[in-house]
Amino acid sequence: MGAYTPHTPQEISQMLERIGVGSLEELLAVSPEIAPKAPLDVVPAMPEYQIQRRMKALAARNRADDYASFLGAGAYRHYAPPAIAALAMRGEFLTAYTPYQAEVSQGYLQAIYEWQSYICLLTGMEIANASVYDGATALAEGSIMAINATGRKRLLVSRAVDPRYRAVLHTYCGGLDVEVDEIAVGADGRTDGASVRAAIEAKTYAAVVLQSPNFFGVIDEIDPQLRASIESSGTVPIAVISEAISLGALRSPAQWGAQIVVGEAQSFGVALAYGGPYVGFIASTGEHMRRIPGRLVGRSLDNRGQEAYTLTLQAREQHIRREKATSNICTNQAHCALIATIYLALMGASGLRDVAGLNLERSRELATAVSSVPGVSLRFDVPFFNEIVVRVGNGAEVLAALQKHGVLGGVDLGRFYPEYADSILMTATELTSTGDIAKLTAALREVVHVAAVR
Amino acid sequence: MSQPSANSSAPTLIFETGAPGRATEYVERSRPHTEYLPQELLRTELPLPDNNELDVVRHFTQLSQRTFGIDLGFYPLGSCTMKYNPRVNDAMASLPGFSELHPYTPDDLAQGSLAVMYELERSLSSVFGMAAFSLNPSAGAHAELAALLVAKKYFKDRGESKRTKVIVPDTAHGTNPASAAMCGFKVISIPSDARGRVSVEEIEKVLGDDTAVCMMTNPNTLGLFEDHIAEIAAAVHRVGGLMYYDGANANAIMGNVRPGDMGFDLMHLNTHKTFTIPHGGGGAGHGPLGVAAHLVDFLPTPVVRAIPDGKSGLRRAPSDGMRFELDFDRPKSIGPMRSFWSNFAHAVRALSYLYANGAEGLKSVSQLAVLNANYLRVGVSEFLSTPYPEICRHEFVASAQDLKKETGVRALDIAKALLDRGYMAPTVYFPLIVPECLMMEPTETESKETLDIFIEALREIVETAKSDPQSIMAAPVRTVVGRIDETRAARQPDLRWRQSG
Amino acid sequence: MNIPSDLLYSKEHEWAKVNGEIATIGITDFAQGSLGDITFVELPKVGAVVEQFSNVGVIESVKTVSDLYTPLGGEIVEVNTAVDGDPAALNNDPYGSGWLIKIKLSDKAQTQQLLDAAAYADIAHD
Fold this sequence. Notes:
- The complex is a heterotrimer of chains A (about 450), B (about 500) and C (about 130).
- Chain A is about 40% helix and about 15% strand.
- Chain A contains 14 helices and 15 strands.
- In chain A, helix 10 links the parallel strand 5 (about 205-210) and strand 6.
- Chain A is globular and about 80 Å long.
- Among the domains of chain B are: about 15-65, no CATH class; about 365-485, Aspartate Aminotransferase, domain 1 (Alpha-Beta Complex).
- Helices cover about 35% and strands about 10% of the residues of chain B.
- Chain B has a 7-stranded mixed sheet, with helices on both faces. A 3-stranded antiparallel sheet of chain B has the order 10-12-11.
- With about 130 residues, chain C is an alpha+beta fold.
- In chain C, the strands form 2 sheets. Chain C has a 6-stranded antiparallel sheet with strand order 1-2-3-9-8-5. Chain C has a 3-stranded antiparallel sheet with strand order 4-6-7.
- In chain C, strand 6 and strand 7 form a beta hairpin.
- Chain C is globular, with a radius of gyration of 13 Å.
- At the A-B interface, helix 1, helix 3, helix 4, helix 5 and helix 6 of A face helix 1, helix 2, helix 3, helix 4 and helix 5 of B.
C-alpha cells in the first residue's frame, strides 16, 4: 500500500464494485507491449523512523558546518529569525495552490501584493511581479522583456555580471536565436563604460545588463553621462541584484537609470539549501508593465464593496495566450517570496539598514585582515558591498590548502575568469565573526607562505 | 465549515502598520553607512515599516487564516495533484546538514547532498523508464523549455535544423505551446477525436521531415489514457521526430506503465505534484527532466557523476559505495537552466517520499488515485454530464453545459458554491475543448468518506441550481470576500502599495 | 446585436468604413460581446505598412486574448490612442469611439473580399 493512502481493503472492494470493475489491475490495464518489462529499481519502503535515520546519515555526509566560511558569489548566509519558518510553514500557506480562487486565497494574495510592494520600494521601480525561479532566470526573462520592447535581437552584458547568470542567459538565448555580446571589465573591477558607449552607438542592442554590486562585490552603476547615451540609443538598461541585502544600504537602481531590475532575493531569509529553491524578482518601470512575465496580484473590489486581491492581467499568461504568451512560466516561487516578505516585515527599515551596515563593516574587517598577510592583496581598490577579490597566487591551490585548515575561503575566480586565476572571491556577512576572520588570516599566513616556496 | 467567518476583516497592509523604531532588533545596531561608502552611493530613504515580532506574527497568521490549503479541506483541483504533503518530507529538508549547505561547498564536503541527488535521479530513471534525469529545471514549464532546447540542440548536432515544428494536441497544457514558442519552434495544434484521444491518423497528417517534437500528456488532460500511444510514437520516430512526455499527470501511471516503454524520448516530472512536495501557493516547484540514452549528453549542467569509492560494505541504495562530483564539463549540454544546481530541498522531499513508498507503494499510489477518480466520476455522473463516460485515470471532466441551458448556472458558479461549502473548486474551463468544464482530480490520499460527502455536496449544489439558481449564481457568500471585480483589477491595475499624501 | 448597414465586415469580426482612400477599422459588436470586458489593446505603429488580413495587434479581455486582423491592407495613418486609457470604449461603442486604426488603402479592390452587413449577420453567432 502507498504510505499515505487511507483505503481499507473493504472500501477498495466497495469502490471497485460501484465503478463496475473487478480489480485495481483491470482498472489500469494497458496493452502488454508497453507494460514495464522489469520491476522498478528503487529502495524498499521504509517506516518513518528509518527514513529519518537514513536522511540524517546522508545529511551527516555533508561536512561543511565546522568550517569558517567565506562563500558567497550569488548565495548568501544571513541571519533568519525563527519566526519566519514558524509562519511560513503553516499548513494554509504550505499546502495552497496558485490562488486562482481568490475568495479563499485572500491571505496569500495579500502577502504577494506586499511582496510586490516591497520589491518596488527597494528597487525604486513602478511594478514587480509575483516572483520567478531565481536570479538567473529573472535575468533571462527580463532580457526577453527588453527584446520584445525594442524588437532588437542582441544583448550587451557586462562580464562583471554573475557568470552563472550569463550562462543561463546563453542557454535561453540558444532557443530564442538572440545574440549575446559581453563587455569587458576595467582594471578597477567595474564595467568598462567606454566599451558600452561604443557598442550601443549602432542602436542594435535591446538591453545593456549591469550588476551592482557586481560579481566582484564592486559597486558598478551606470554614470550619468553613459546613462544619457544609453537612453538616446533606445537600449533598455537592466540592473541585476544578486545580493538583495545591498538594497538596505545602496541607492536604488532606479536612481542610476535602470528601467528593468532583476535579481535574487535568497538573502531575505531563504535557506541556502545547496542552491534552491530560491526566489527571483523582476521589476520595471510602468511602460514595461504588459511585458512583465509571470503572475501579478492586483487590488480591486469585491461584489460587497470590500477591498480584495486577485491575480490580474492574466491574459498575458501561457494558460490563455499559449504560444503567444510573454513567457512559458506557470509556477512562481510563492513560498520563497512569502519567506522574503516575512523577513522584510520582521526586519523593517531599521533592521535591514543594520544588516546592510554590518555587512559593510565585517567585509571591511575582512579586507583589512587579509591584506595584512604577506603575499595577499586586494585586486580592486573601489567601493564595494560585502565581497572582495583577493589575490593569493593560485586561487584553486590556496583554497584547497585553506580547506585543510578548516576554512572555506571563498570561490576560485579562475573557474569563471582565467585571467583572475590568481584570485579568490571572499564574502563576509553579519554572521561572519571576528574569530572566523582570525582563523582565515592565520591559515592564509601558512598557506600563502607554503604556496610561495613551492 | 473550514472557511474563516465572513465578518473577519482583512489585516491592514503591512505598510500601513508599525512605527519607526518599533522593529524587534535581531542584529546589533550598525554604524552609519557613510563610514563605509560615499554618500552619493547610499540610499536616502527606506520606506519600509518597522513592526515588532508579535505584530508580524499576528499579521501573517491572520493572512494564513484567509488562505485555503489541502490541510483545511478537500482540494479536487484537476491537473494539479493536490495530495497530502507528508510532514516528514519537510522535516528532512530542514535538517541543518542539508538546509545550511552553500551551493559552492567543495564536492568532498557535500557528499550527502550529492548522494540525495544521485539516488533520486537513479530512482526516477527506473520508475519512468528513462536513461537519465536532470534535476536542474525549477518546475514543469522550466523542464519543458529545457527539453525543447535539448531537442533543438540534438537536431542541430545531427545537421537536421530544418526540424522546426512541434506538435501539440488541443488538450495540452498551455505551457506546451508557450515553451515551444520560446525555442523558436512553430506550434502545430491537432484536434482530439470523438473519444477524447489523439488519433494516429491526425498525427500522421502533420508529420514530415520538418517534425521536431510531438508533446503529449498521457493520461491526457481529460483523464483518458492515450491507448494508441505506441503507434503514435512509432509514427513520430519513423519521420525522425522525438516524443515528449508532459509528466503533469504522472500520478496515474507509477508502477503501471513507464513513459520510456511507451516510446517517449524526453519527459518532465512535476515532483511537486506526484512526489508530494508542497505547492506553497504556487511554487517553488521542481521539474526533473528525463531523457532516453541518445539525449543524455545534451542535458543541462551540472549533472552528478558517481564514482565507486572502492570500499566494501552493505549496498542497499544506489548511493551506497559511491563518491560524487558535480560535472560541469559536458560539451554537448544546452548549459544551465538556473542559478544553481537544483531545487535541492525539494529533491530531499521527493526522495523522502520515495523512501516511504518503495516500488509497491508507488504502484499502489497510482492505483488508488485512479480508483478515487473513477469512484468520484461515477458519483458525479448521476447529476452532471460526463462527456467521456468511460474508465478514466487519475482525473476526469464533467460539464455543466446542460445545467447552464436549463438553469443559467455555469461551471464557474458551481465552483464558487463549492467554496461556500468548505471545498476548493475543481479546475474550471480547462481543457478548452469541453464546454463548461469541471476537471476533478481527487488524488489517492482522500478517503471514501471524503469523496462520499463531497459528492453529496455537489449534488446539493446542482439540485439547488434547479430550484433556486440565483442562490448559486450569488456564491460565494460565506467566504471573507465575494466575487472580485476582475475588470476593474485589469483596467485600473493596482499592483503595489504607495505612500499616500 | 448591432450590425450597421453602411460598413464592411471580415470573417474575423472586424469592420471597415471606407471613405475615399482611407478606411477606419474596428471590431464588431459581436466580437466585443464574445470577448467580454476588454482591458487592453495593442495597436500597430503609425507608418507601418500592413497586408490585408494580417495580424496587426492584440485585444485582451479579463479572461481571454484575441488577435486583431486588419480587413484591408495599406499604411497605418492613425491609431486610436484614446482606447489605451479607456479600453471600455470597445465594449460600449465599438463602431464609434472604440475605433482602432485608420489605414491608407493600398488597393481599394480588396474591399470586394469583405462581407456586407447581411452576409456578416449570417456568421455573427455562436
